[in-house]
Design brief:
By secondary structure, the chain is mainly alpha-helical. Helices cover 86% and strands 0% of the residues.
Amino acid sequence: MNKPVQNVLKGAAAGAILGTAAMAALNAGHNKGKQMKKKAAKAMKTVGHVFDSLSQMM
């Protein structure tokens, strides 16, 4: 895979992570602690899958 495509994929992954974190922060006041913990664990699992996919592409 060429370098510009890798940079685009890395940027997209970073944007997805930041977007997820921003949504979690904005909704933190509306969620109970247990629900927030569950959603955070789910988000981290998803981020792990994204990075695994990116590393396999490279």
